User: Fold this.
Amino acid sequence: MTSSPPLSVRTVRFGGLASPVRFTGCDDLLDAVRTLLRGWAVDDVPADPAVPPVIRVRRTPRGYRRVSCWIDRPSRVRAKLRRTLVEALCGFHSELLDWYVAAHPDTLFVHGAAAMFGRKLVVFPAMAHAGKSTLTVHLAAAGRRIFCDDVLPIETTTHRGVALGIVPRLRPPLPAGASDAFRRFVAAREGHGHRNRLYVSLRSRELAPLGTTAPVGGVVLLERQPKGKAMLAPVDPADALETIILQNFARDVPAVKILDTLDHVVRHARCFRLRYSRTDDAVARLDEAFGARARRAPARRARR
Assistant:
């Protein structure tokens, strides 16, 4: 009777995050994680008993078992057991974000997407069923460089958005009205996916790497509609401010600093509401408003 070969044990550091991650018997997961990241240094390092891993992932007969300070109770660990590679990848993705947030206590984190128009970011705060990730990928297909499709860090000192360098994730199937060109773009960049999850492996010119910063020039509230042409209309900056405050999930930043930072962002941004049914139509309206030839309207003061 032959014994099973020993599981590989790898201690890995990610970017500038202080603690390592231990991968046991799941080189496939580590390889998949690398495909999500742009601008991250992902390096094997010697294990150090004085620096315990912040996340531990082990391949077991039942699936990928993940333990961290965010899921440290046995009941939660059992609940987070993931059977497939993509499920494990999505789970690690979520904890990587938790880890980054915890490591940057003075930074705001807005649930939303962001893309470059010229030298400034246009931010799309998360709205329920608004299609922000699909719109984000369509903006990449149209030549806009993406900062994020889910979480945008905002520095409280400079008020600039920061790229996390993580590729976007769609929820298949694509909308029925998606153009053939957009479908070809997604197919050419198809990453890891399973059922209703699909990572889109944007290329270096399409996705800003980790740590890239830019000022915010626009805030757009998204609203999907079943049919009709896309319509982009100015929105009261107070409404934009309220929405972006509600989508902030910074854990340790004082409330006054949150309000001051986001108030500054909105005061120096052009604020719109975008109602749309087709993403290609929405991209066209955004290009008209924020593209190189768009008329620059004066910034408006957000009311408190």
Remarks:
- The longest helix spans residues 85-103.
- Helices lie at 27-36, 74-79, 85-103, 132-141, 180-188, 237-246, 255-267, 279-290.
- The CA atoms of residues 31 and 89 lie 10 Å apart.
- Residues 295-304 have pLDDT under 50 and may be disordered.
